[in-house]
Amino acid sequence: MKGKREPEMCFWMALYGKNINLPGIEELLQIKLDNNRIGVPEDLPEDLSEDPDGPVFYEEIAWLLDLAEKNRNELIELGVDFSDSQIWMIYYYDKQCNMEFDSGLMERMGKLGLKLCVSCQEI
Predict the structure, then answer these.
(1) CB 89 within 8 A of CB 7
(2) What pLDDT sits at residue 4?
(3) DSSP letters for 59-85
């Protein structure tokens, strides 16, 4: 009998803008970009450890928003246009795909002008 495979997810923020300064963004954030993408680390900091009673997907999206909010003005100066930028979530599922997003996170994305893009792929 085949073992059950747990669903997998991955998250990133894609930064876009005219004359965007990607090396400057890497220096500012102390993060190596994958082209124009900021990936969520596999091991989030302890203060964002998973809360079993917390909303689904909260930690990963919160990490990206914290980074964007804390560095908002500097990122804009480096050419980031948040209204063209996106937070991406890829969700690999088995048999059913359901999601729940925290209203506070959605409000934070709206204040920045970020789009949330979700792709569900059956495994």
Answers:
(1) no
(2) 43
(3) HHHHHHHHHHHHTHHHHHHTT--TTT-
Is the full-model pTM beyond 0.85?
A: no
Amino acid occupying residue 49: S
The token pair at 115 is: 């789009």
**How many whole angstroms separate alpha carbon 114 and alpha carbon 34?**
19
Whole-angstrom distance, CA of residue 83 vs CA of residue 113 = 5
Q: How many CB atoms lie within 10 A of CB 4?
A: 6
Burial of 26 (0-12, 13-18, 19+ CB in 10 A): middle
List of long-range contacts for 29-32, beta carbons under 8 Å, 24+ apart: 29/67, 29/71
What are phi and psi for residue 52, nearest 5 degrees?
Answer: -60, -20
Nearest to residue 71, comparing CAs of 118, 116, 38, 117? 38
24 has a pLDDT exceeding 70: yes
